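Researcher: Structure prediction, please.
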Amino acid sequence: MKILRVNMSDLSTKLEDLPAEWQIVGGRALTAKILNKEVSPSVDPLGKDAKLVIANGPVAGTRAPSCGRFSFGAKSPLTLGIKEANVGGPGGQKMDRLGLRAIIIEGATEEGKYALLKIDKDGISLEPADKYVGMKNYDLAKDIAKDFGKDVSVISIGIGGERRYKSSAITMTDKDGDSARHAARGGLGAVMGAKGLKAIVLNDKGTDALEMADRDAYRKTIKAWTGVFKEDAAMQGMARFGTPSNIAFFGNIRSMPMMNFTNEPLEGFEALAGDALEKVNEPRKGKMMGCMPGCLVKCSIVWNDPDGNYVTSSYEYETIALMGTNLGIVDPDPIAKFDYIVDNLGLDTIELGAAMGVAASAGKMKMGDAASAMALLDEIEKGTEFGNILGDGVVATAQHLGIDRIPAFKGQAIPAHDPRATKPTGVGYATSPMGADHTAGVTYDDFSNKEGQIPRSLAAQIMFAVSDSMGYCMLAGPSDKKVLMEFLRDLINARYGGNVTIDEIVEVGKQALKDELKFNEGTEFHTANLPDPEFLKTEGVGPNETVFDVDPEEMKTIWDGLDSFKFQ
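Model: Predicted structure follows.
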């Protein structure tokens, strides 16, 4: 297995051996290790000395169910700390089958110059990307498919990344070739843009079959996992309705943000719940699909318009909440259109939805009015003065408008799980090396109780770090996490041989967190960002007007239990 080093300054590439001790280290854990080893924490996130690391999981190329997610890691221009953003799609599987565990992007092209990185069985090359500059993601992917073949996977930035917007995402094509998957959080699209890298093209056609230490054990593991999927209620619910499956619950406890994170009533949000969306979408020939080959859960909603035309294949809860109910909009069609537009531009729907909510509170759009929301998106595309401010996220937008009620932790917008309603998740936002991030430890375990939430958040953050380091999609997680850990253990041993234990897998996640915390010690993460939002402690939400009231001093102790944590 190799690490590919790509120098954008002199347009050179070099392959290096993956260290033997990193055999089962992938995804988030590997990005953190490489950044700690090679990047100064004080680096300018958009400077030439910054690096962008791409890493897949240790079993991605086997195409085992839900194991193909891969991670992007860098210093975030949004939080000014370490950042990992992960994404689904077939790209991680192709990387593994091409013999790569990680790609390190370093240096930078001349300002205004962009290159395309092509990787296939015949070699690796950097090619001029002049013809693709200025293109949005969907058209870009279509043109690349014409130029390089329809079976390639494309990693790209839209105009958001080219403009270095701090809310910009890195985009991945799904298995149908649509630019609908995003490593969206933290502004890492801006880092890729600053490197001068417009796109990466992965083509595993003609590659040799993966070496497997024990194919019989692999087949038995997959067969057993298929049985788990058929019997697990959580996985079945996700398979039928996707991530909006719990909207009725989230909306009723007011975990789902509404009207710029207020407790104002919003009638009709139930129209966005999974069962309601199914009733609308099925007659339009919409469907559920997996973003990558081999997925059993297939939780991605392919949303069609009333005429049966494709709109998006990533119609997900976070977008529905931040660009829907948070803006007072409950009609699923304009929200789906927003998703397509933002994906095409290459931005984070969470960061942008929070920024637009703040803008609405200042009169820049009318709450509940899809047309005025669309006008703000048009400003971003045109690059107007206010459009550029929105593109830099919720903190920049609030500061420009003179607003001090800002729904963000450590510079990053709160996602669609309000910490007042789910207190262990709030602990995660306040303590995570990532700031407010739903991929770093969302949990609803005893969600309304302010007591005992430190160990709950710690356990969730460790398990999310494990999942992200193994390339496993937590959306496909079973109810019993021990079953998941046994599945990952058996897959790793089937591929590589040996006798890896669950404790060793958990240690990978724990070490990822340690590396991230270490990196942040030398950054501006703890000094340059605003204090955690005060309004969460004073403005109640839900029927009981709950606030986020976990003791701040107690939260400071969360990492004291990291070394001693044992998976139960």
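Model: DSSP finds 21 helices and 17 strands in the chain.
Researcher: Thanks, that helps.
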